[in-house]
Amino acid sequence: MIPAAKIKIGIKIGKIVLWFVVGILLIIILAIAYEESENEQNPGGGDATSYGEGNIPSEVAIWKPIMLEELKKYGLEQYIYVVMAITTQESGGTASLDIMQSSESIGLPPNTIADPVYSIQIGVQHFKNVIDKMNKFGVDIDTAIQSYNYGSGYIDYIAKNGKKHTPALAQQFSNIQAGKLGWTSYGDPSYVDHVKRYMGAAQGGTGGSTVATGKFKVLMDEMLKYKGLPYFFGGASPPTFDCSGILQYCFSKTLNIQLPRTAQEQYNMSTKVPPDQLKPGDLVFFTGTYNAGRAVTHVGIYTGNGMMYNSNGSGVEYSTIQSGYWKDHLYGYGRVAAF
Asked: I need a surface site. Which of 68, 71, 284, 311 has the fewest CB within 10 A?
C-alpha cells in the first residue's frame, strides 16, 4: 500500500506538471498569434490615388500622354498625378529640356539631358525604383515622393523610424547626409510639401475609388471612419480590425449582410468573379501573405481604378492591386452583395 504522504506528493507533482504544460501551450498559442500578426505583410502606404490632378501648368500637362505611356510599362499608371506634380516641381513649371531633372539619377551633371521624352523615361524609371522600394519596406507614399529628391536611402531611414514620412524626419535625414558629405545642406527637406502644391484631391473624395453611390456609398462611408487605424490580428470591431474583421463589421452594420469571420471563409461563401467583371464592392482575395496553413490569407474591398480598401500591416488604408506586393499575391475576386 502506498503511503498517503507519497500520494499527496505525487498529486502535487502532477499539478505542477499540468500547469507547466498549460503554460507552455499558452505561450505557443500567443506566439502563433503574434507571428500571424507580424507576418500579415506591411506592403506600404502607396495610397497614390488619394491625389487627383492639381494645378498643373500647360508646359507640363502636354507631356501627360508620354508620362502615362512610361508609367504603364511598369503598371504604375495610378501614380500619374504624383508624377505630374513631381515634374512641375522639378521643372519649375517651365518648358525645361530635362523636365524631370533626371540627369543626376544616372550620374550626370544637372540638366545634361536635353530631350524631354528621354528625361521622362529616366525620371519614371527612377520613380519606379523608389515605388518598388516603398512597397518592399512598407513605407508611405510621401516617403517615396521625398526619395525622388533625396534618393532611395531615405526609404531605409524611414523604414527604421516609424515607416511614415514627417517633416522632422526629412530634416534629420538632410542634416545627417550633409554632415557625412561635408555640405552645408542636402536636398530639399520640404520637397513633399512643395510637390503637393500641384496635387488635387481624388475625384469623389474616396481615395482613388470610383464615385461611390447608393448602398456602396453607405458601406464606404462607414469603412472610411476607420481609415488610419492600426492593424490588429483578431480585431473585428472598433478600434481594432484585421483584414476580414473590418469587412464583417461594416457589411453587418450598414447592409445587414453577415459575412463569416476569416478571409478564407469569406472567399468560400462569395460568388467568384472574373477580372473583367470586377466591380466596386467586390472582395479581393490574396494568398501567401503569411503562413496560415490555408490558401486565402488576406482580403480587401475593391473600390475601382485598380484600388482596394483594406486593413493590412500598415493599418486601414487604400492600396493598389495593380502593382507591387498585392499584385504578386493576388488570388481571386468574389461578390457578396449587389450594389
From this structure: 68
pLDDT tens for each residue of 201-236:
554 433 444 444 578 888 988 998 998 899 999 999
Specify the pLDDT at position 50: 56
Q: Are 133 and 114 in contact (CB under 8 A)?
A: no
pLDDT value at position 39? 38
- In the set 126, 298, 305, 312, the catalytic residue is 298
Q: Does the annotation count 194 as an active-site position?
A: no
CB proximity list for 119: less than 8 A, separation 6 or greater: 96, 97, 98, 99, 100, 101, 102, 103, 113
126, 135, 165, 243: which one is catalytic?
Answer: 243
Q: Which residues pair with 287 in a beta bridge?
A: 296
pLDDT at 19: 62
Predicted pLDDT at 56: 85
- At the fourth CATH level, which superfamily is domain 208-335? endopeptidase domain like (from Nostoc punctiforme) (3.90.1720.10)
Name which CATH class applies to 48-201: mainly alpha
In the set 149, 305, 310, 312, the catalytic residue is 310
Is there a catalytic annotation at residue 250? Answer: no
Q: Is 19 exposed, middle or buried (0-12, 13-18, 19+ CB in 10 A)?
A: exposed
- Confidence (pLDDT) at 22: 54
Q: What per-residue confidence (pLDDT) applies to 95?
A: 78
Residues lower than pLDDT 50 in the chain: 7, 28-39, 44-45, 203-212
Domain coordinates of the chain in residue numbers?
48-201, 208-335
